[in-house]
């Protein structure tokens, strides 16, 4: 209830402030109008000047008064909250046509579900790790009681921590260069350049890799307005294939409790493409199969296979 | 711009230039390559006159001015053995103005024209090389567009060329090995032109094939 009241007060101040802005604009307009019209016709030159100066002073004072009023009101309006948990998407809740497009409530639901899922997946994985050799249900029950309340903190890691993990991964591989961008808020986007072979754009959410696009070394990775292009696919069939396999790899390397290990494993896997054009297929021994080099890399051994030659 | 390899393909025994080109087209189409327009590369030769070679009377180098339909807004000027220059297409007009210094060797114009084929990330151009309107040979250019480093993809390209050139697969173009950073330097469009220039000089010295007029 208090929230609603609060919003009401704010709205009143808002409407007053809007009125004050209108008043300020019209008084400023008056200043320029009188300047534009110049001196009025009076009998003496002195009289003309005097009347003009007085009018000008009056107008300026009106501007001053309106400006002070606006400043006073602006303190009442207050700042829009910047610490919204969902960042800019929180602004969706300000949409007056809420009833018609329940976007924000749906977003909150989805966020809640995703957090819950992450949390349960985390618990499940830690249980499975502990109990890998013990199958008794009793044990599970016992540990469930002492189950620590793990927060789904992995979704809200400080950007500094993400930076550290990424730069450590970058130092592990001398032939990989990783540039980190934050084009939209806190989520990082990585531009991974692998030798002179390929460039991968990796979109992160916290330390989780959301999606990745692999393109050729000579291809443009920026859009026309100079931003990192995270959507359009490569012009070359070989890199479209590698993009598909990289997406598969993202699903394969999953360890919700240790996202930094996932990032490292994925980068190790991706790095095996540095010899994309130099390695023949481990099964058929050829370089080309239907015009494409071996684009698949085994998740364990990192051996190269054609898409059609892997099992 | 990927790694390119330009080579000359010998004319089949008892066949004409056109018949050999048709054979190559057929083999490419059997592979699954798709026709994608046409192409040309041409080359004019210029001699430096005594005005240009200076007082020291150095042996004058030949200057080649080339065009490539892949880069229609550029004109490429290559001195024998370097340096090489990429210029606007207006360069042709400049050469006319410079005719007191560089004389066009008439009848030395060589060009290669033919069909472009696309196969996966490969671009293949089979061209008939003509000089003073007589067919002198066949050029095949293979470009692997996805890779920029010759040292990375040469074996892969060789395997591809084998699939339609058989035993006529060329050696690694010497222009790549000649670079200071060697085979691992990224390619540029001049590498392709140097290869065409080498092929054209070879064709120029060749005997005229009797009765091989194309026009
Ligand atoms: Zn294979």
Automatic annotation (TrEMBL), chain A:
Biological source species: Chanos chanos (Milkfish)
Quick one: a GO cellular component term? mediator complex
> Coiled coil located at which positions?
none
Instruction: Return any one Pfam family short name.
Output: Med27
Keyword match Transport: no
- What keywords are assigned to this protein? Nucleus, Transcription, Transcription regulation
Lineage top rank: taxon: Eukaryota
Cellular compartments annotated: Nucleus
- Give an example GO molecular function: transcription coactivator activity
Q: Which family does it belong to?
A: Belongs to the Mediator complex subunit 27 family.
Please give the InterPro entries that the UniProt record associates with this protein. Mediator_Med27 (IPR021627)
This protein is called: Mediator of RNA polymerase II transcription subunit 27 isoform X1
What Gene Ontology biological process does one annotation of this record name?
Answer: regulation of transcription by RNA polymerase II
From TrEMBL, chain B:
GO cellular-component term (any):
mediator complex
Cellular localisation: Nucleus
Keyword annotations for this protein? Activator, Nucleus, Transcription, Transcription regulation
List the molecular function annotations (GO) for this entry.
Answer: transcription coactivator activity
| Keyword flag Transcription regulation | yes
Q: Which GO terms describe its biological process?
A: regulation of transcription by RNA polymerase II
UniProt keyword S-adenosyl-L-methionine present: no
Q: Which family does it belong to?
A: Belongs to the Mediator complex subunit 20 family.
Annotated function: Component of the Mediator complex, a coactivator involved in the regulated transcription of nearly all RNA polymerase II-dependent genes. Mediator functions as a bridge to convey information from gene-specific regulatory proteins to the basal RNA polymerase II transcription machinery. Mediator is recruited to promoters by direct interactions with regulatory proteins and serves as a scaffold for the assembly of a functional preinitiation complex with RNA polymerase II and the general transcription factors.
Assembly behavior:
Component of the Mediator complex.
Name of the featured protein: Mediator of RNA polymerase II transcription subunit 20
Organism whose genome encodes this protein: Chanos chanos (Milkfish)
Q: Which gene encodes it?
A: med20
